[in-house]
Fold:
Amino acid sequence: MSEAHVPLQVWSMPLAATFALAITALLYFRGWLRLRAVCPTAISGGQLGVFICGVMSVAAAVNPPVATLDHQLLFMHMVQHLLLMTFAPLLILLGAPVKTLLYGMPHGLVQVMGRLFQLAGVHHVLRAMAHPALCWFVAAGALVVWHIPSIFMLGLRSQSWHGIEQASFLATGLLFWWPIVQPWPMVSKWPESSMLLYLFLATLPCDILSGFLVFCDRVVYPVFLSSAQSFGLSALEDQQCAGALMWTCVTVVYLIAAAIVTARLLSTHGSQEYAILQSEMQAIALRKSDAQRMDVV
Structure:
């Protein structure tokens, strides 16, 4: 058996990543308690729940069995990819992590971060990083680059590169969902309706890659030729299952996100129309009142 077929991770927890996730969850919970003490309606228990689910999704992706089997099955590699790039970032951002983590951090660390953000250029860099065009290109680029066969093999052969791959999936996933969720108050120059186009365009690289994996008549990643057979699958069947999983999950998640954005747009438009109608009715009532006063006079 060649080196590429040997899983780099045994059935044990990666201590550094697990410790970092545990500290993040504890800081968030501490900040959640402090926010609730200041204002009970500032952050809900549901947001706490979705954030913890997001952290647990990351933990599931980097721990066995997913982190071990992703070296043996392309299907499990795709499960890890979806957890890190699609599900975990969305859940984490829905938990309002920025404000809550700031409340959970030690006061001295928050002061240091505040001085850092006040430095010239840092604020502009952060705003540029949240630009939808940049977020889209970074996420699409990470998806495409890491699935180029030669780079894909690099992640399998080197544990360091595999860690970089996982971190890039999570980081670009957070960037991708940031313009949609907007977990921190910001003034967006892009209309909210543009997020529908943003989500539609995001499906294109995923559809192209997943469609290629499903309909390709050859094995794209020969490293799985022998390991897939031990699970009762041919490498081509494993590849087709991986492509179908990615195609289905990404399409469903993006459709749900687009439906929520659409409902939010319609709700905002309806409330604006209601406010306009109410103001017009008040103006008509005022004019009638003035006319009646003139008649009395």
